[in-house]
Amino acid sequence: MQNGAQLRNVHSDRISLCLIDQKGRCHSISERLGQNDPDAGATSVTADLTTDWPRATYDALRAADVRHMAYVPDAGHSTLIRLLEADGAVVSNVLTSEEEGIAIACGSWLGGTRSVVLMQSSGVGNCINMLSLPVQARIPLLILVTMRGEWDEFNPWQVPMGRATEAALTAIGVTVHRAETGEDVVATVEQAARMAFESDQQVAVLIGQRLLGKKKW
Fold first, then answer.
1. What is the pLDDT of residues 95-123, one digit of tens each?
2. What residue ranges define each of the domains in the chain, with the CATH number in brackets?
3. Is the pTM of the predicted complex or chain greater than 0.85?
4. Exposed/middle/buried for 47, CB within 10 Å: 0-12, 13-18, 19+?
5. pLDDT by residue (tens digit) across 117-144?
6. Is 84 exposed, middle or buried (0-12, 13-18, 19+ CB in 10 A)?
């Protein structure tokens, strides 16, 4: 790992840091204040990307200087949403429709702020026409999509759009990457952010349903 750490978020009892390795990957470290073993002489490492990938994803977004979030409330994104909303440096917009997020993200970029749009796969179909704006204007766009209609899906209404999500985004000109593990999510979000904001591209990261866990209600 490179020397040094980047401070991402401070809570009353925890300092979350992001160590960047030689491949540019973010490794979260949590230090519990006053709870370290005095004999150990080292900070305890608690990040586990199999379960704590939302926090590491938050770290990756902030490392990419994302300071705006537009989202439709979603259980799969809930932890990431809470982390971004708790960050005083991040402005949040709750959407009534996913397509609003595309327009708001474009306006955010024109105002000098990097944005991320969070949605579920069922909302991708609402965005197709609006996506012509960033595609044709070459406005950087980063979308994180939690997938439905895949592994162990109980709701038949989620299946058609789940099947069509990747193809629909690709057809309109959005670059699509999939992530099926916590480690994949973090690494993919990091490179997707670079591609979007440094190459003026529209990039979507699809987060597999198996990682999100079984849903039943």
1. 999 999 999 999 999 999 999 999 999 89
2. 53-212 (3.40.50.970)
3. no
4. buried
5. 999 998 999 999 999 999 999 999 999 9
6. buried
